[in-house]
Amino acid sequence: MERTAISASLLAVCFVLAACRGSLAAPFCPAQCVCETRPWYTPQSVYHQAKTVDCNELHLSKIPWNISIDTQVLLLQSNNISRVTSELQSLVNLTELDLSQNHFAQIQDVGLSNLTQLVTLYLEENQIKELPDTCLKDLANLEELYINHNQISSIGPNAFSGLGNLLRLHLNSNKLVAIDSHWFESLPNLEILMIGENPILGLQDMNFHPLSKLHSLVLAGMGLREIPEGAFQGLDYLESLSFFDNKLTAVPKKALSVLPSLKFLDLNKNPIVRIQEGDFRDFPHLEELSLNNMEELVAVEKGAFSNLAQMAKLELYNNPHLFLLTAALS
Ligand SMILES: *[C@@H]1O[C@H](CO)[C@@H](O)[C@H](O)[C@H]1NC(C)=O
Ligand SMILES: *[C@@H]1O[C@H](CO)[C@@H](O)[C@H](O)[C@H]1NC(C)=O
Ligand SMILES: *[C@@H]1O[C@H](CO)[C@@H](O)[C@H](O)[C@H]1NC(C)=O
Ligand SMILES: *[C@@H]1O[C@H](CO)[C@@H](O)[C@H](O)[C@H]1NC(C)=O
């Protein structure tokens, strides 16, 4: 009885607090959106409090009116927006903008000019077809760009010009048929590149050369049959590389040999027939190697793995035709 009374009065206090908060936020909060201060983490995982306007999943076809000019995080995921003109221009402190799952067909329609404070931009699951030269040029502080799951078939050589602080780029699940090393000349600080699930016809020598700070590269699901010997030249700090679900018939030994820092290598789901002597020789930092789900794999030759000082985890699961394994590991 007493308990109920206490919780009832607590509830009342909560309502009063909520009402106060609501009335403070009300003049500037667009209809149906939620406006409040929320935790926000930088890409380096530093905690901040951010003024957040959450208008996710509201069937909006336009950016709402009356967004407060001190807004730092604006969430508009899963709406029906296809065009922004100058609505974002007054948001001088905008650090995160989420326009994923909307209906943009052109990057020019996203209204990104002058958003110089933007750190994180989500544009995945739209229908953007092209990234022309300098289309993101004002985003000097951008650190993360998620533009995966669009229809991008063309990227200008200077499309990323101005993005000197970009750390993470997700371009996976688009329609790219080639990777142009000119793109990366504007991205000297990039650490993570996800570009899998594009119908790339093949890699070229020096394909990623300007990315001297890259840590992680995902080339999954691209139908790659072979890797040119010089494809990874210049990736001196690459630690993690995934070839998951490609068409490689042999370990790309020569291409891998230029990666002095490699720690994690995923070759799962490739039609590799034999792991040959010397395929994995002299990777002093290699810690994890995954060779799973290989229907065609029949043999791992003696001496396939040698001088792997740091190797902590070797996975060879789900390879139904593999024999001769003991010889390799003896
Ligand atoms: C914007 O806010 C003003 C006053 O705060 C209000 O009168 C107006 O109706 C709002 N506009 C919209 C479109 O909500
Ligand atoms: C933007 O951020 C700066 C620095 O924190 C602050 O001084 C300024 O008042 C903010 N501007 C707006 C419109 O909130
Ligand atoms: C989305 O917007 C388009 C016009 O841009 C309109 O034809 C369509 O009905 C809208 N869809 C929904 C679900 O609101
Ligand atoms: C925004 O950018 C346009 C051109 O991109 C420029 O003309 C305009 O002055 C800028 N506005 C502000 C508020 O900086």
Automatic annotation (TrEMBL):
SMART domains: LRR_SD22 (SM00365), LRR_TYP (SM00369). PROSITE patterns: LRR (PS51450), PROKAR_LIPOPROTEIN (PS51257). The keyword Transcription does not apply. Pfam families: LRR_1 (PF00560), LRR_8 (PF13855). Residues 1-25 form the signal peptide. The keyword Signal applies. Keywords: Leucine-rich repeat, Repeat, Signal. This is Uncharacterized protein.
